[in-house]
Amino acid sequence: MRPFDFAPLYRATVGFDQIEQLMDRVLANDVSKTSYPPYNIEKTADDAYRISIAVAGFSDKDLSVEVKENQLVISARKNADDVKRTYLHRGIANRVFERRFHLADHVVVTGASQEHGMLHIDLHREIPEALKPRRIEIAKVDAVETDVVDAKAVN
Fold first, then answer.
1. Please, what are the averages of pLDDT over each run of 10 residues along the chain (155 residues)?
2. Is CATH 2.60.40.790 the right assignment for the domain spanning 38-130?
3. Residue 132: which residues within 8 A CB-CB, separation 6 or more?
4. Is the pTM value of this prediction over 0.85?
5. Among 49, 125, 137, 145, which has the highest number of CB atoms less than 10 A from its own CB?
């Protein structure tokens, strides 16, 4: 794949740092990155989302969900009990991982739950009142009555 050079675009713009960082992140996405653990992102309402991650074999104590500077970081560490076990076949990957998601402005994590081997993280976009569209009422100007002089009274 041919790499793109966005340097001319960066020289001609001011204040678009987030777009530049986003483009750099997308284009620098390493193909060799692991796809473990698999995950889904779904839209549950107009301003609500859910990230579901397959975490079979991990308990609540093994998992960590943190938000740092508009990044959601989900990580897991190995359970110490696995060192003592001897497996004849190990098909469930119970290895350390860290998965990062970049959150848009005004998106907050509202909760996390684990059930049936899936970690569910709920997100909600909270748009501040200042950014919400608002309707401006148009004031009606009452017609100002002007003094009408009767022509017969003047003469």
1. 66 65 67 76 93 90 91 84 75 84 90 94 90 87 64 58
2. yes
3. none
4. no
5. 49
